[in-house]
Amino acid sequence: MKNNHGLDIGFGDKKGSRRSKDGKIKSSKSSSVAAEASMEADDMPFFEGKRYYLGEDALASNSSSIIEMTSYDNLEHLSPLFLWKYIEENNLTVETIDKIAVGLSFAHIKNAKKYIKRISKFKVNGKEYDLTGKIILVPQGVGAKYTIEKFYDSVPSNYLIIDIGFLTVDSVDVINNTVRPENVSGEQGLGIIKIARNIQEYIADKFNEHISIKEAKEILTDKTFFLSGKENDLSKVIDEYSEKYTKTLMNYLEKKHEREFKKYRKVFFVGGGAYFIKKNNPIIEVLKKPEYANAIGNLLKIEEEDK
Q1: pLDDT digits (tens, 9 = 90+) for 216-252
Q2: Is 206 a domain residue?
Q3: Does any domain span residue 148?
Q4: Average pLDDT for residues 127-153, to the nearest whole number?
Q5: Buried/exposed 92-104: b ≥16 CB within 10 Å, e otherwise
Q6: Is 203 within a domain?
Q7: Closest by alpha carbon to 176, among 264, 106, 253?
Q8: What residues make up the domain containing 100?
């Protein structure tokens, strides 16, 4: 069995999928969050002249130190570090990895070659990780196509995939079982970052605290805000923001994809933002664990190519 991996280094979370020894797909995720660390924190990864806190260590840092993942430039800069973390978490070595398929939004697809080059060869803690020739790129939403066709029964030949990420929303039109390249799109700023920004503003107004967008993302997930020894329940506020976001986004999508919503039997929603979509239309299908749809699909694509 080859040592292949499907990876989705998102603006919100890093999701990875691989085959376990028994042949089953194993998926995991962690927050794509980083904060600059003091050079004295010599147990933290050293990358391009700086040390960084990652994951929970980063979230425990001062809000002002957390790097905001709100642009492609920051994603490109930090992706090698997130890839290194995935390698470390899974006890992998460059030598034993066969292939890694990574995702990238259609909003940033013009940077595809640059992005692959960036994550194919880098150094962390003075050690070089050379994955040249082992990285392939699968656009966001396209990976999900492989997941849908593998695990869902009665998939129609024509359908739409809408991938709601933290920052971006990607749309993939499948006609006669084939992705139509002229009918794909990716837009930055439409993802659930809109809800996170609402949470940021609420925290500033209610508690006079200025938090990072990454901290707001965690509050969106947990629905609580911890401050000075007290857990503050924000579930009602977040539900209100979420409902407003969902309504606005669906109105936008149904207008943009009027043809598909009228003619297709299925519109599949994937990505972490899919949890906020209400199935108020019989053609809407929200995948189970939608945040893993691209990571799993990326793995399946590699396996299909290896046959």
Answers
A1: 999 999 999 999 999 999 999 999 999 999 999 999 9
A2: no
A3: no
A4: 96
A5: eeeeebebbbbbb
A6: no
A7: 264
A8: 4-140+294-306
pLDDT at residue 29 in the model: 93
Residue type, 272: G
Flag whether 179 is in a domain: no
Q: Is the pTM of this model over 0.85?
A: yes
82: CATH = 3.30.420.40
Count structural domains, the chain.
1
